[in-house]
Specification:
With 295 residues, the protein is an alpha+beta fold. It contains three helices and six strands, in the order E-E-E-E-H-E-E-H-H.
Length: 295
């Protein structure tokens, strides 16, 4: 007899998780101009589990190419950052449900899909924020063992049944029936597995379609963001030029205001002098009138 071993999925977990939330600060006056490219890998560093949850320690590597302004020099940096993060996956979210014993003893496979890390540069251009999420898939596997007769062994039974008159043909036929039933059951199981695999292929194709659609949407968003960034940069330059012009106008107005104040002071002084002169003239004329009337 041959022993055929296979592993099938007994229970599955498939949900989205936040796997990274970090900020990278650049010091020494270095300014981030733009993120040129990025590449990420997510791996399992270690796994601990109990009857309630999986505790998964993740290792996340980010390879970045940045354009930065160092002083007055525009440079390109290729940087690699390694992060570690823990994620807990709880038993009640596995489908279909499994016993506590199966949960802690069954073999498992962990996969990551739809890994999506978003990068953002702050308004001061000195801090890069990284926000990452992905789908974590955990398959709990159970092993099946099935004993099958070889085809040549079945042919040997047929030869014995045909050549020996004193042998109990019914026993031979019974053994052959058992073999046929075993093979039939195995065939049914293979057909069920084939149906399951077809469903999995269709599901993966659908996921690939969704991922392609999301990729196109992200490309469009990235293009729109680039255009918006260019527009805002030009707008900032225009506003800076207008601000500089307004500052120059303000300086000219301050000079004109100082001149006007000086002119006002001068006119006030002249008015005071004219008023005093008129008062003296008035007094002198009054005296002359009095003297004239006395004559």
């Amino acid at each position: 007899m041959n022993i055929v071993q296979s592993k099938i999925i007994k229970s599955r977990y498939n949900k989205s998780h936040l796997i990274l939330d970090k900020k990278i600060t650049f010091e020494g006056g270095v300014k981030i101009k733009k993120l040129i490219s990025h590449y990420e890998t997510v791996k399992v560093k270690s796994v601990k589990r109990n009857t309630k949850y999986f505790d998964i320690e993740l290792f996340i590597e980010c390879i970045l190419t940045l354009e930065v302004l160092n002083g007055n020099i525009l440079e390109k940096y290729s940087l690699t950052y390694n992060f570690e993060n823990n994620v807990k996956v709880f038993k009640e979210y596995f489908e279909p449900r499994v016993s506590f014993l199966d949960f802690i003893e069954l073999d498992y496979v962990i996969k990551f899909k739809k890994v999506n890390l978003k990068y953002d540069i702050n308004l001061d251009y000195d801090t890069l924020s990284i926000l990452g999420e992905c789908f974590i898939i955990i398959n709990l596997l159970v092993e099946r063992c099935l004993m099958l007769k070889e085809i040549d062994e079945m042919q040997a039974y047929l030869q014995v049944a045909a050549g020996l008159d004193d042998m109990d043909i019914k026993d031979v036929i019974g053994n052959l029936d058992n073999i046929v039933k075993t093979l039939s059951n195995r065939l049914n199981e293979i057909e069920e597995e084939n149906k399951f695999l077809k469903r999995e292929i269709e599901r993966h194709r659908a996921e690939i379609g969704v991922l392609n659609s999301e990729l196109q949407n992200e490309k469009i968003k990235n293009m729109n963001l680039s255009l918006e960034c260019t527009r805002l940069t030009e707008r900032i330059k225009d506003l800076e030029e207008k601000l500089d012009k307004e500052r120059k106008k303000c300086s000219l107005l301050e000079i004109e205001n100082a001149r006007a104040l000086d002119e006002i002071k001068r006119l006030k002084k002249e008015r005071t002098e004219i008023t005093s002169e008129l008062q003296r003239e008035k007094t002198g004329i009054g005296k002359k009138i009095v003297e004239f009337l006395k004559k």
